[in-house]
Every structure is written in C-alpha cells, then in structure tokens.
Amino acid sequence: MASExxxxxxxxxxxxxxxxxxxxxxxxxxxxKEARSAADAGWDVILLGKSPGxxxxxxxxxxxxxxxxxxxxxxxxxxxxxxxxxxRAPLAYRPGPLAGYRKQKMKAxxxxxxxxxxxxxxxxxxxxxxxxxxxxxxxxxxxxxxxxRHRQTRALDKRRKQMxxxxxxxxxxxxxxxxxxxxxxxxxxxxxxxxxxxxxVIDELKPxxxxxxxxxxxxxxxxxxxxxxxxxxxxxxxxxxHEFLPGIKPWSPHPRWHVAQILHEQSYxxxxxxxxxxxxxxxxxxxERHGLGATPEVVLNAPDAEVSPEQAAEPVPDxxxxxxxxxxxxxxxxxxxxxxxxxLDIMVESLxxxxxxxxxxxxxxxxxxxxxxxxxxxxxxxxxxxxxxLPYVPHYQVVPFLSxxxxxxxxxxxxPNHEIALITKFFEYxxxxxxxxxxxxKTMGEMVAKTGQGEVFKAEDVDDYVRAATAVxxxxxxxxxxxxxxxxxxxxxWEAQALVLxxxxxxxxxxxxxxxxxxxx
Length: 521
Hints:
Helix 17 (442-451) links the parallel strand 13 and strand 14 (454-457). Helix 2 runs antiparallel to helix 4 (133-162) and helix 8 crosses helix 9. The radius of gyration is 28 Å and the shape is globular. The strands form 2 sheets. Strands 3-4-2-1-5-6-7-8 form an 8-stranded mixed β-sheet, sandwiched between helices. By secondary structure, it is an alpha/beta fold. The protein has 20 helices and 14 strands.
C-alpha cells in the first residue's frame, strides 16, 4: 500500500483506532458494530479484514473505514509439501501435479490405443492389429506402475495431512520442547503470513490504539504494538477475546493447528493493555489462564436498539415470503454459523414428527457442504418442501427479519465454548421477541429457564427437542409475554455495550476522553 493512499486522521477525532479481524467483515456483526459505534463516538476508525481474493476492497461503515487486504499464504503449505519422502513412500511422486498428470497420461494412452485397435479391427487389418500388441502390453504394464506410484502418493498425502504417525507426533512434541511458546512458528507458519500482510499496513496507519479481535489477530496486534513502541510511539493494545481457545472445536483438520493457536495466544496475551470479552465466565477463565492483571471488561454481542436513518430506509426482506409460506404456517428459525457442532441436523430430523412446521436456516454460506447435507437429508425424509436455506441479511436487519418466526432455535452441542456465554443469536432472538428452543448448554440454558423465554431440551436428543418445540408452539404467548418485563431487553442492547467499550478506549487514551455529558446514557 502506497503511503500517499493513506487516509488523513479525521479532523477533531479523539485518536486513531485500527481494528483487526481475520475474516471478510461481512457476517461478523460484532466487529461491524464495534467499528461503527467507535467512529460515531468520535474515534478515527479503520477496520482491517482479510480479503477473499488478491485485490484490496474498501467501503464505509458509517464514519468507519473498512479495508480488506489480500493475505498471500505461501507458508500455509508445510515444508514437507515441497519435498519427497524416500523412506516413508519410496515410490511416491514428488509433491505437486506430477502424479495426477502421469496417471491421466496413461489413461489417455490406453484410450487412444483402444480406438486404434477398433479402427484396425473395422478395417480388418491384421498388420495394424499386430503393430498394437507391444504398445498395448507396454501401456498395461506402465499403467500398473504409474497407478502404484499414484496410490502411494495419495496415501502419503493423506498421512501427511493427518500427521498421526509416531514420527509426526514426535516432531510436534519436539518443537514444543525446544521452542516452548515460540513453537507456533513451526507448527502453523501461516500466522506469519498474516503478520506480514497486516503488519505493514498497520505500521503505515500509525494508530494510537490497536483493537485485535480474537486469538489470531492478538499476535498481529501485539507485534505491531512492539514495533511502534520501538519507534517511541506509545501505542495501546486492546485484545477482544471472543472465545476460550482451548475449548473450541478446531477450524482446521490439521492436527498441529490447535496447538499452534494456543501457543500463539499464550505468547502475546501479556502484551494487551486491556482485554474485553463476551461473558463474565470467560473473563474469569482468561484471568486464570493468562494471569491477567485485571478482569476483562464484558462487551456482550447484543444487537442495536436503534439503527441509523440510512439503515432504517432499507427495506427489510420478509422471512415468510422468502420461505413461500403464509402468516399462519408454523415456522422455526436458526440464524448464525452453520457447522455440525451447531446441531442444526436435529431441526431437520424432527420434522416428520411435527406436522406442518417449517424450518428456516439463515446462514452465511447457504450452499456449503454442511447445508447441502442437511438439504439432502430433508429430501430423504420427505420434508424438503418444509426446509428453507436463506442467506444472511445485514446485521441491522436481523431482528425485524427474524421477528415473524414462531420460535428461534439454538441447538448447539456441548463444547466448552458453548457453555460459557450468551451468544449473538440469543440477543437477536430476544429483541425479535421470539420464544426459545435451546439446548441445555450451561449459560444459555440457565438463562432461558430463569426468564421463561422458552424451553430447554437435552442437546442432541430428538425426542426432547420435539417435546420442547411442541410446547412452545402450543402456548407462544406465554413465552413472548416475558419480554414485557421492564428493563429485560434494555440491558441487552449494543448501545449499552458501546459505552463499555468506549470507556476502555478512554482509559487507555486519556487525551481522547469525551466530555462527561457526551457519554451519559
């Protein structure tokens, strides 16, 4: 990025904040709200995300600027992917396209010889057929040889991806023993690719404060902070911890990935000047794990109580119209990330036992492999006409969009991270005044049982899910009336959370404090 393209600081701003996130921003309502509300509060905000392609993308979120930067990933390929393994697989081809090319070439050769034989037979040419004997034998023998090498190449690739052989486990342990926390560099060097892509942009922007979202951006932000301080610039670092890293289901199938992320987080947590997170339970867990000097501030993933005039002017899609159903047809909805551990399959499996109920899945990638599996299963069960897979709407439209459903579902499985927080969709469903059907994960199950917003069922238990869904459909008013309780929804708004976040920024950058009248709710 050329320095002449860098934005000038906003006139009269309270300071420059560079926010970091390792996704494409769209679909991440938390970072969008953080950026927009901070800019509305007078900060000069630039949100850096990861571009899905090779070109930079930019747009505005209110007064905040969003930039998606390309992240080349040459180190995302491990070193072993560039070399042969003569001891483990002596017949395997060297890494790359050669194995596929050789196999295809053999198939093409044999197919061509077959056509030539057909032609010679049609022409009743004994000489022509005789000339093909040696080539056909050679092709058969060589095809067997190439096939054996191709199979060994594929088997080696599979073992290398699984990395569960004794040698693989030994090397993983060896790097941890030799390098300690620094071993993440060997175990997941793609983290360095991200550092190289983001780091130079952050340095050029000269932030006063870096807000690093989640664990991968923590290291990027910490290293940028260290570089700035080496140049005598007192940059502050806020780490926004979205999850308890040891408790997540790894995103990557690579067995070293999770170990590397944990070591990376351990390496850089100490550099955060302040930490924010999504729940009080997680805040206490982070203090215990990283020895933090202060308990993190809790910033809930709550929706906006009010939207801007330009957002309000945008028409909100009609959920029921998109599903092709009328207002009296029973409709359940799930809105959020789609993955097996989210438990969406139970909503499909239960449909044969709940007549007339329709299901709407509002997800980021409607054509993903997982959603395709759910659609195929609905077809097998004969309920495909009652399953509707829809794309996300903008985060400021989620609440009115969902509000026409009969109940909202959170069917997530028991994973450590699922137990410790009220997740985004909990607050979105609440503001949409939807009755809940939620699995018995600790924090959300206890909250729903306490408030009476819905029914709690045993996670992954179809029978109990059917019971809960049937109960909610039978008496919807009973559950919706809970939202009339004074103050219940007021505490679950982004406006309240933005004040918490602004207080963190103001404490770290006292020169950027607003006048007290401006921060009074």
